[in-house]
Amino acid sequence: QVQLVESGGGLVQAGGSLRLSCAASGSILSGYSMGWFRQAPGKEREFVAGVTWSDGSTTYVNSLKGRFTISRDRALNTVYLQMNNLKPEDTGIYYCTSDVMQAILDGSSHYWGQGTQVTVSS
């Protein structure tokens, strides 16, 4: 089975940047995608971004307005989330996920990492 391990979270001031990483064990299945979700205490987990593993096509939640960028390194089986101009409302636990893109978008993704905490101070 695919195992996902996130890293790169931490405490940052508003306006700063962080780069999250998610390393996947083994090879990624043909047709699968990888993505990022985030969740604040008491709130539902929300989609952030996704990338198709085969061709690198990306999709983002509209509210991020270009501040976040997702990318993947196929040789390292790793997906990244570059987060710029961070705001306090970006605070939450960020989770890496893997499945077909449709499953990721509708919330039924099968594979999840443990999550990494991102805290943005004002």
What's a quick, concise take on this entry?
The chain is built from 1 helix and 11 strands, in the order βββββββββαββ. It has one helix at residues 101-105, and strands at 4-7, 10-13, 18-24, 33-39, 46-52, 58-60, 68-73, 78-83, 92-99, 111-112, 116-121. Strands 2, 4, 5, 6, 9, 10 and 11 form a 7-stranded mixed β-sheet that branches.
Topology as a string of helices (H) and strands (E): EEEEEEEEEHEE
Major sheet: size, sense and barrel closure?
7 strands, mixed
Quaternary status of these chains? Answer: single chain
- Overall shape: it is globular
Mean pLDDT: 93
Q: How far apart are the termini?
A: 40 Å
Distinct helical segment count: 1
What is the helix content? under 10%
Which percent band covers the strand fraction?
over 45%
Structural class by helix and strand composition: mainly beta
Radius of gyration: 13 Å
Number of strands: 11
Q: Which parts are unreliable, with pLDDT below 50 for 5 consecutive residues or more?
A: none
List the helices and strands and how they pair.
Blueprint: E1 4-7, E2 10-13, E3 18-24, E4 33-39, E5 46-52, E6 58-60, E7 68-73, E8 78-83, E9 92-99, H1 101-105, E10 111-112, E11 116-121
Parallel strand pairs: 2-11
Antiparallel strand pairs: 1-3, 3-8, 4-5, 4-9, 5-6, 7-8, 9-10, 9-11
